[in-house]
Structure formats: structure tokens, C-alpha cells
Design brief:
The protein has 14 helices and eight strands. A three-stranded antiparallel beta sheet has the order 1-3-2, covered by helices on one side. Strands 6-7-8 form a three-stranded mixed beta sheet, covered by helices on one side. It is 70% helix and 7% strand. The termini are far apart. The relative contact order is 0.04.
Length: 519
């Protein structure tokens, strides 16, 4: 049973194997045969497409070849037309050139004819020139024979006569023009200065180096002096000024040449008198308090002055120096008030002349700033002020105006030149400044002494408080030109040897009288 079953399985297995092999063989045969057929069809289609593509390509190449031939023919036609146009243009130019050449030939012929005429005329002129030269020689010989002078001598005499005449006319013309210019300048300057002065109303006050303090009673003098003078010694040591206590009723005199110290001493003494407590410790406190007050006042005075003059953006150090000028005096004139007056005068004159008003007022305000430190720095106050202005950032024009107001350096601007004029006007106002009697008499004598040093001076008088010198000269010794020279030389010597406010007028009188008596 089992053997039959195994045989049956074996038979079925062998049968299945052969059946599968037959099926596989059939499948392979069918597939391979179809692929070969398909490849044959594909190759046939490819050959057909290649033939078609080749035919299309040949057609395209032929068309491009035809198009290129057409383009070449078209470009050749265009070039041919262009060359024809160029040929026509060249031909036209050649025709024009030929016509111009013909004209040039004609002009050359005309020029040659004119040159021939000119050559003949030149020869004729040369002949006439020779004839004229011969005639001039004959006339010259006859003139020399008639006058008895050679040509050179006559020429010299004529030139001398003409030179003298020209010099005389030139001198008269120069004198007339100078006189007219001086008269016009005097009128214009007088008008400008008068206008500026009339528009400026400033009171004139004078101060000295002595200050008087009123005290309530004579008993206060003893308290100020203190036991064995210790209070007054402390005051003088702390303030650096002198306190004069004499028989003057109810008054104490403060004397000193430093105005700031004098002001500190004045404020301190007033504070002590009002408080009533006077002893060394209290004195030191009062002086310290007065010093702080004066410093604040200095800054305030400087700021107010800058504001009144319209000088903005001043350096703080220049503000303080301006404030110090409030406590300084020149011949009794307050220097800060004088500076403000000069600033206003310069501004008015600059406005009349059409100049820079702000620059002029700034120069006027700062022109005496060197006086605030002149005892600390060597040099004149004008030069010191010039250096300080440059140091603290002022412009070169402003610094030059400060430095040139006493002619110690040349002015670089018209505004700077105005400074010396305004300074002299402010200083010479009636009552603006005071002088010691000794200085006044010394200047009068010096003026007359300088005048008598010149030869030919008969009399000399210093007049109008030393502002005019009247000189009478000997007419036989000094002529009119010499009188003019004497006046000019005398003014130069006065400017170089004397120091004075304002200006001094020099008048020279030359008079010759002839007196006869009829009997």
C-alpha cells in the first residue's frame, strides 16, 4: 500500500517535471520569436525616420543656402548703392575744389599786382624821405646859424623849459587835489564824528584813589583803631590799603592804588561799622566776605558790559578782566565806562561808514582790557590786550584793533583804525579826565621848549590848556615853504616826545610888515 502510493507519487512528480519543462520551452520559444519580430519592426521604423530626417535636413540646408545667397545679393546691392553715392559726393567736392582753386589763382594775381604797386609807392616814398631829410638838414643848419646855438643846446634848453613848466603844473595840481581831498576828508570826518557824539549821551564822572567812609560817631574811630592799634593793623594787613583816621569828623579815609583792594576794604569797613563788633577775628571774616562779594561784582560788571556792547560769546577770563576795569581809573576816568563809551562811538562811526558794526563795538569794548593785568604782565596795555585777545580765542582783526589803538602796531582793518579815534574822543571830553597840576604845567613848558629849539622861531605860546601851540617865526629867516615844514616837523616831535589825551593843534604864523611915516 505504501509502495503503490510512493510509485504513484513518483509518476506524478516525473509527469509534472516534464510538463513544466514543456511549458517553459513553449514560453521561451514564443517570447524569443516576438522580440525578434519587434526588433525588426523597430529597426525598420528607425530606418524610415532616418530617411525622413535626412530628406528634411537636406531641404533645410538648401533653403538656408538660398537665403544666404539672397542676403549676399542684397548686401552687395546696398554696398554698390553706397559706393555710387560716395562717388557722387567726391565728384561734387572735386568740382568745388576746382572752383576754389580758380578763385585763389585770381586773388594771387590781384595780390601780385598790388605788391607791384606798393613797391613802386615805397620807392617813391623813400625818394621823398631822402628829399625831406636833406631839406631838414638845410633848415637845421640855417636855424643854428641864425640862433647861434647847436641842435643839442637848443634841445636841452627846450627840455629844461618844458620840465620846469611840467613840474610847476604838477605841483599846483598835486597841491590843489591834496587841498580838495583834505577839505572833503575833514568835512566827512567831522560829520561822522559829530553824528556819533550827538547820538551818544554819556555822563562824565571822575574818581580818585581816595575813598571816604562815613561813620556814625567819633567813638567808632577808637573801636576801629582798637587797643594799641591792633584792629587797624589787622585791617591794613588783610586788605593791603591804608586807613587814615585823623581829625576829620565822622569820617575814615581809605587810600590805596589797587582799586579792587580799596573796594574790598570799603565793603569790609562798612560791614564792620554796621555790625558794631570790631576785633581781629571779625575783621578777617568781614574781609573774606567782602572779597567774595567783590569777585561776584566783577563777574556781574563784566557780563553787563558785554551785554551792553553786544559782544556775545566772550571767553570767561575776558569777562572777568572787563569786570576788573570797573575798579580801575585813568586820570580819574572809569576805565570800564570809558571802554563802553569807545565801543558805542566805534559802533556809530562804523554804521556811518558802512563797516562791520559788531567787530567795531567788540574792539572798542576790549581795547583797554590790558589795563586789568598790566601790572602783572610786562608790556604796554595795548600790546598786552592784543596778546590776551589772541590767547582767549578772539579773531586776529579784533586783536589787531586792540593792539593798534596807540599806534604801537599798524592797523589791519578800518575798524581797528577807528579805535584810536574813538579813544581820543572819549578821553578828551570836557570833564572826562583830570590831571595833576604839575603834569599840566610840565606839558605846557615842554611844548614851548620844543618850539624854541627850531631856528627862526621868535615867539611860542602854549594855549587852550596845552591843546594848541601858536608859533611866530622871523620872516627873513623862514619862508612860506619853511613855515609849512616847521609845522609838520613840530607835530612829529610832539607826537614822539609827549604823552597827552586828544590832539594838539600847531599854528605857525609868518608875517612881514613894512611901516613908513609921512612927515
Amino acid at each position: 500500500m505504501d509502495l503503490d502510493q510512493h510509485l504513484t507519487e513518483l509518476v506524478f512528480g516525473v509527469s509534472g517535471f516534464f510538463l513544466g519543462a514543456m511549458i517553459f520551452w513553449l514560453y521561451y520559444w514564443i517570447k524569443v520569436g516576438g522580440i525578434k519580430h519587434l526588433s525588426v519592426e523597430i529597426l525598420h521604423k528607425a530606418e524610415l525616420e532616418a530617411e525622413t530626417l535626412k530628406a528634411a535636413t537636406e531641404i533645410t540646408l538648401r533653403q538656408k543656402h538660398i537665403d544666404q545667397q539672397k542676403e549676399l545679393e542684397q548686401s552687395w546691392q546696398n554696398e554698390k548703392k553706397k559706393s555710387l553715392r560716395e562717388e557722387d559726393r567726391i565728384k561734387q567736392r572735386e568740382d568745388k575744389l576746382e572752383s576754389r582753386i580758380v578763385l585763389v589763382d585770381k586773388k594771387l594775381i590781384d595780390i601780385e599786382k598790388r605788391e607791384a604797386v606798393l613797391a613802386a609807392r615805397k620807392a617813391q616814398l623813400e625818394e621823398e624821405k631822402d628829399q625831406i631829410a636833406a631839406m631838414q638838414s638845410d633848415v637845421k643848419a640855417e636855424l643854428e646859424k641864425a640862433s647861434g646855438l647847436s641842435a643839442v643846446e637848443a634841445k636841452t634848453m627846450l627840455l629844461d623849459s618844458l620840465t620846469s613848466e611840467v613840474k610847476t603844473e604838477a605841483a599846483n595840481l598835486i597841491r590843489r587835489i591834496k587841498k580838495e581831498a583834505e577839505e572833503e576828508a575833514d568835512r566827512e570826518a567831522s560829520s561822522i564824528i559829530a553824528t556819533a557824539i550827538n547820538r551818544l549821551a554819556v555822563s562824565c564822572t571822575s574818581e580818585t584813589t581816595v575813598t571816604t567812609i562815613d561813620i556814625p560817631s567819633e567813638e567808632m574811630k577808637g573801636r576801629i583803631i582798637g587797643r594799641e592799634g591792633r584792629n587797624i593793623r589787622t585791617l591794613e594787613r588783610a586788605t593791603g590799603v591804608n586807613f587814615v583816621i585823623d581829625d576829620t569828623p565822622n569820617a575814615v579815609v581809605i587810600s590805596g592804588f589797587d582799586p579792587i583792594r580799596k573796594q574790598i576794604a570799603k565793603n569790609a569797613l562798612i560791614d564792620l561799622v554796621q555790625d558794631g563788633r570790631i576785633h581781629p577775628t571779625r575783621i578777617e571774616e568781614a574781609v573774606e566776605k567782602a572779597t567774595g562779594t567783590v569777585k561776584k561784582q566783577i563777574k556781574q560788571f563784566g557780563e553787563d558790559a558785554a551785554l551792553r556792547a553786544g559782544a556775545m560769546n566772550l571767553h570767561p577770563e575776558l569777562i572777568l578782566l572787563l569786570g576788573k576795569l570797573k575798579f580801575r581809573f585813568s586820570y580819574g576816568q572809569n576805565v570800564l565806562e570809558h571802554s563802553l563809551e569807545v565801543s558805542h562811538l566805534m559802533g556809530l562811526m562804523a554804521a556811518e561808514l558802512g563797516l562791520d558794526i559788531a567787530l567795531a563795538k567788540r574792539i572798542g569794548l576790549l581795547h583797554d582790557v590790558g589795563k586789568a593785568v598790566s601790572h602783572e604782565i610786562e608790556g604796554s596795555h595795548a600790546v598786552v590786550g592784543h596778546d590776551l585777545a589772541l590767547k582767549y580765542g578772539e579773531s586776529k582783526e579784533t586783536a589787531n584793533g586792540i593792539g593798534c589803538h596807540h599806534q604801537e602796531m599798524p592797523p589791519s582793518t578800518i575798524e581797528g583804525r577807528l579805535c584810536s579815534i574813538a579813544d581820543a574822543i572819549s578821553a578828551s571830553r570836557p570833564g572826562a579826565r583830570i590831571e595833576a597840576v604839575e603834569e599840566y604845567i610840565k606839558r605846557l613848558k615842554k611844548l614851548e621848549e620844543i618850539a624854541y629849539t627850531y631856528n627862526g622861531v621868535e615867539k611860542a605860546y602854549a594855549m587852550q590848556a596845552g591843546r594848541e601851540v601858536l608859533i611866530v617865526v622871523l620872516p627873513d629867516v623862514i619862508d612860506d615853504d619853511g613855515a609849512t615844514t616847521l609845522a609838520r616837523d613840530l607835530t612829529k616831535r610832539i607826537e614822539s616826545e609827549l604823552s597827552y589825551p586828544g590832539k594838539i593843534k600847531v599854528t605857525v604864523i609868518r608875517e612881514k610888515r613894512f611901516v613908513e611915516y609921512a612927515m
